[in-house]
Amino acid sequence: MPVVITPASDADVPFIVALLERCTLPVAGWRDHVKTTLVARDGLAIVGSIALEAYGESALLRSAAVEVGSRGRGLGSALTKAVLDLARSRGIRSIYLLTETAGGFFPRFGFQRITREEVPEAVKQSVEFTSACPATALVMKLILDGDPPPTPDPRSRLNLRSP
What we know:
Blueprint: E1 3-7, H1 13-22, E2 37-42, E3 45-55, E4 58-66, H2 75-89, E5 94-99, E6 112-114, H3 121-124, H4 127-132, E7 138-143, E8 160-161
Parallel strand pairs: 1-8, 4-5
Antiparallel strand pairs: 1-2, 2-3, 3-4, 5-7, 6-7
């Protein structure tokens, strides 16, 4: 059965929280953004997540997680592409993120390193910026130009479909 990426529902919350905790990602502040969270489902199991916190035309990308046993199949790339599409559909023009471990992953989608001072005040007021992530976390930015993000690696063995 192929992995399917869908919007998260309220019923998914405990499973997403458990996934984020297993991946040692912050949960603080995330529950307020369930409506802009996407999940990857492998059958009945949630094996990945990614979320947006929208602040006008800017957004914070957060909670990008993939179960250890599902890594290496292109799922992180598929989730990222899907959340960038969601951002475009909502009129988001710039996306920011904080990471301690994925600084090498996000540049393939056009994200570039920036300083915290370059982040809009509204985004800097998010729980992730104010308390959930350490001040040493890498900050990255992507300007959306309306074009879709690069296609994930064609060597991926993942067969994704949308509902």
